[in-house]
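Q: What structure does this chain adopt?
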Amino acid sequence: MRAHRTVVKIDQEKCNGCGQCATACAEGAIAIVDGKARLISETYCDGLGACLGECPQGAITTEVREADKFDPAAVEEHLARQGRAHHAGEHVHPAAGPAFACPGSAPAALDREPESARQGGEAIPSHLANWPVQIRLVPPTAPYLRGARLVVAADCTPFAFADFHRRFLAGRVLLIGCPKLDDAAFYREKLAQIIGPNGIQDIEVLYMEVPCCSGLVRVVRDAVADLGQQIPLTLTKIGIHGEIKDRTAEPTGTLTGPASKRD
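A:
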């Protein structure tokens, strides 16, 4: 079945076959074939664009066009067959094999001091101001959304960043979701329903440094762009060791114009 949706577009002239996009694509939608990156099936591409920031040549963009629908079941079958032979004459870069697995899934032991020891064992107050918090469950008509300042957070961020409540939630409404495991198209539509009528002041997007998580940034940007509203966005990247890796402000809340770094 085909529909108008967002899919990856690869400029073959710019592509140098480095394979970084194939590594970043957790669904295995991109392979290096005869020295160039290629979208091997539209059904494997979720359109979130985790590969965009990985291309040093700027050869990858996204476009909205008629395409086969994203099929998670087909992706699972495809990933299970990673070792299969390709068509004769196609020379596949090593990055297109085992590197289909999401780089963010690599195991790592994270040594850290217990939070209770740093706080002297005292209870840490909650700053959560709303319930529910899952994007799917938040009603767009909830009174707490009126004139709110939103935090849209990937659901791993509160576990990675120890001071999440004090640092990000005071005076804000929290929405959480997973851009990897959930339906990005649904998130885009639901966020537009939440943002559109409620006079949202600004939005901070919290996402993990792993490539798959950058899809949350795109979903929020697209929802705001769909509405044509001018809402300031702040994009905050959290490292798996619990640090803030980057914080970028986009004053207009749109995809146009250069983003500026916030001090």
